[in-house]
Amino acid sequence: MFWAFLAVLTAIRLTLAAILPLTPDEAYYWVWSRHLQMGYFDHPFMVALWIKIGTWIAGDTPLGVRFLGPLSVLPGSWALFHAARLLLPSRPWPLSGFQAVLLLNATLMLGLGAATMTPDTPLVFFVSLALYAIGKAVSQPASRALGWWLLAGMLLGLAFDSKYTAVLIGLGFGGTVVFSPALRKQPGPWLAIPVLLAATVPVLYWNAAHHWASLLKQGGRAGDWHPARAIQFLSELLGGQIGLATPLIFGLFVMGLWACFKRNRLLGWLGTLPLAVFIFHAFGDRVQANWPAVVYPVLALAAIEAGRRIRWAAISGLVVTALVYVQAAFAPLPLPPAKDPVQRQTGGWPEFSQKLEERAVAQGATVFMAEDYGLASQLAFNQSHLDVLGTDRRWSLFRLPVVQTDKGLQVEEIHHIPAPLPADVLCRESHGQTVRCYRMTVVKNPLGVQLPRHS
Predict the structure, then answer these.
(1) Membrane-crossing residues (predicted)?
(2) Neighbouring C-beta atoms of residue 32, cutoff 10 Å
């Protein structure tokens, strides 16, 4: 019955993935998938590869872009289920496995994240598999554990190929090995390091060939320092995690980490070190709410170590996720776009792009121009007749053609909607409400990087 329940959740997530328009970031990653590389300015390559596979199966549609996301939850949950047996020896199994999987799937982070496609989607999948491999390695004699150590290293490397925050799980595991005499004396953990590095070679090679652009962009955030706003950033971090985990599950996560301090050193290291890094970062700069997603599979296991009942926490999380699903798909509550992040991100893009295409053709423009990467990507995905020129410098890191044309239509978002609406402004609408408005400007002889079209 439990696995049947997960299968039903997967079907619901696939349905949601099919009916929701793409977010700007998802459209951006779709552009990546049309030009596969070993790395990109913002993230490693794994999300683009997953989208490429999904669109090969289901076409250049929202379902195709997100196809592997909902499906990956099933093998990821299987791995976490068996990791509970290996990493929670003090808790009764299979109950502990069911509880850990249920808690993770009840979080809004996975519930909504599994129906979309971001770098966090493959990241959580590979971290879950790595936890299983680590559990097999630490639960067997050293003579039989070598293969599992090597597999764990490879999976952590693939997690790094999904998102750079995976390095925090690797560091947490390194702390366990260094401070555990039994593990420190084994060859397996040390031999896993070159395997991990080998898995990350494509990303490192791309960065080396592009002046370390991606690593400098992401790593450069660690140097930001605004201590006067620390209380604000810490509050945002706390509030974001309460929201993404849902309140009762967040409480179980906290109690579970405390329990791991006392009786489960491995999970304590894997959970505490990444969170400590995020908390330290929040003293000087904003931590985006989705960054700690890397540690959610660990926290789901740690919560079971506390030995508390999970029924109402899981039910409340599933209810919150279901309400978000309904609001995202049907918008029964007429919330203003400023208070509905799903509609703000996804609402009205196909219709807006088609209207914009009609305006461009009427004015004799042959291409769209956009500096904002999300807007440029949405235009490339949602209309199939006009080329799109990206003018942001990030496009120079693609293997994309630089083209020039006689006349282009520059599109840019405006933050204050004038009344009455001028003729050169077109608004994106969803469920009868204005979401965002954009100004159109005719530009002669534009020069930019041509994005692939959705055809």
Answers:
(1) 95-115, 121-138, 166-183, 190-208, 242-261, 266-283, 289-306, 313-335
(2) 23
User: Is residue 140 within a helix (H) or strand (E), and if so which, with residue range?
Assistant: none
* Rounded (10°) CA dihedral 183, 271, 274, 137: 30
pTM equals: 0.94
DSSP state of 400: -
* Rounded alpha-carbon distances, angstroms, from residue 446 to 33, 205, 390: 26, 33, 11
Q: CA 422 to CA 413: how far, in whole Å?
A: 14
Q: What is the pLDDT of residue 187?
A: 92
Strands 402-404 and 447-451, by their bridges, are antiparallel
When computed from its CA atoms, the radius of gyration of the chain, rounded to whole angstroms, is 23
CA distance 131 to 295: 11
Strand order of the β-sheet with 425-430 is: 402-404, 447-451, 387-390, 367-370, 407-414, 433-444, 425-430
Long-range contacts of 238-243 (CB under 8 A, 24+ apart): 240/287, 240/288, 240/289, 241/289, 241/292, 243/108, 243/289
CB 64 within 8 A of CB 57: yes
Domain ranges of the chain: 2-328, 346-451
Nearest to 329 by CA among 20, 112, 12, 13: 20
**What pLDDT shows up at residue 452?**
85
pLDDT digits (tens, 9 = 90+) for 109-128: 999 889 999 999 999 999 99
Query: What's the one-letter identity of residue 452?
Result: P
Assess contact for 306 and 122: CB atoms under 8 A.
no
- Residues 309-326: tens digit of each pLDDT: 999 999 999 999 999 999
Q: Output the DSSP codes for 292-331.
A: GGGGHHHHHHHHHHTT---HHHHHHHHHHHHHHHHHHHH-
Q: How far apart, in Å, are the Cα atoms of 369 and each of 184, 383, 450? A: 56, 14, 9
Residue 431 DSSP one-character state = T
Task: Give CA–CA dist 421/344, Å, rounded.
Answer: 20
Q: Cα separation of 39 and 452, whole Å?
A: 18
* DSSP character at residue 228: G
Token pair recorded at residue 52: 């490429």
Q: H-helix or E-strand containing 27?
A: helix 24-34
Contact 52, 60 (CB under 8 A): no
- Checking if the pLDDT of 386 tops 90, the result is no
Residue with tokens 């990206």: 390
